[in-house]
Amino acid sequence: MSPIRLAAIQAAPVYFDKAASVEKACGLIAEAGRLGATIAAFGETWLPGYPFFIEAPLGDLWWEAAALYLENAITLPGPETDALCAAARAAGIDVAIGIAERDAATGGSIYASLVFISRDGTILGRHRKLKPTHHERSIWADGDARGLTVYQRDYGRLSGLNCWEHNIVLPGYALMCQGTQIHVAAWPGHEPLTAPSDPVWARQLLLSRAFASQAGAYVIAAAGLRLEAHVPERFKSLSAFEHTGQSVIIDPRGEIIAGPAEGETILIADGDLAEVRKAKLACDPAGHYARPDLFELKLQGRTIYPPAGD
């Protein structure tokens, strides 16, 4: 089989401007296509950006930012995803992009969603983050399990999760049970140089490497980028820290093969399913390294481990 070219797109959206952000995303997809990418991934809620203001104290400006964020969230499908699908088709690549998805029925709730788009310009599916992390619960609603799906592509089996879904174990195991081979880990992009004293921070490198090793899969850890210069002047006082990116691409052993990325860039690495097969042969967590006599996993009442017939 030909190599799989994996791409992590690390760039800042245009905050509080979904139209400009879509235009920028389409340009980045085109560039990833020119670089020969097979699959390109953006960070968590890249469109229209991670809600950085959630760490700030509540006040009139906080609520103004939150209302503007809701206004710039997108429905699925919609004109924004139509444009992204057209860009993926023109570039000839698969795309995974984090979006702030507005509830089409109520218009008042937002989900942190990861959307998968095929190179023929169709939406393969979307995954809504099951449980927003800590302060994120003030702006994002709980997701659902319908998107815990592995997509069969001609280059391999594709999956994805958002941020701390990699820390709560069972969502990842549900994907491992479906044989994921290439996984998108979407992050907001904040990795402190030293561990803080509090218990909640992204830990994007640790958790992405752990998933790669446990699943025996390539991981595109696509991180967001938001520096002070990217924040509109009116809302700068709501920004507690920067999102500095540090995207990486990880092999099925859990080793970094590209990155950490700095600044606006498209990080590229080539993968090979032979390496996935080696890793899974060493440890298949839902196969020969599992204990179906001791454990079972149900997803919305459906048993996904052990597989039917076992």
Briefly characterize the structure.
Helices cover 24% and strands 25% of the residues. By secondary structure, it is α/β, with parallel strands linked by helices.
Number of strands: 16
From the spread of the alpha carbons, the general shape counts as globular
As a whole number of angstroms, the C-alpha radius of gyration is: 19 Å
N-to-C span? 30 Å
Largest sheet: 6 strands, mixed
Listing every helix as H and every strand as E from the N terminus to the C terminus, the arrangement reads EHEHHEEEEEHEHEEEEEEHEE
Mean pLDDT reading: 94
Low-confidence stretches: none
Q: What's the number of helices?
A: 6
Trace the largest sheet across and list its strands: 5-4-3-2-1-14
Helix-strand makeup class: alpha/beta
As a percent range, the share of helical residues equals 10-25%
Strand percent estimate: 25-35%
Please, could you describe this protein's structure?
The protein has 310 residues and is of the alpha/beta class. It is 24% helix and 25% strand. It is built from 6 helices and 16 strands. A 6-stranded mixed β-sheet has the order 5-4-3-2-1-14. Helix 1 packs parallel to helix 3. It is globular, with a radius of gyration of 19 Å.
Topology, element by element:
Layout: E1 4-10, H1 18-34, E2 39-41, H2 60-72, H3 79-91, E3 94-102, E4 110-117, E5 123-128, E6 151-153, E7 156-162, H4 170-177, E8 182-187, H5 204-215, E9 218-223, E10 225-226, E11 243-244, E12 248-250, E13 256-258, E14 265-271, H6 273-282, E15 297-299, E16 302-305
Helix pairs in contact: 1-3
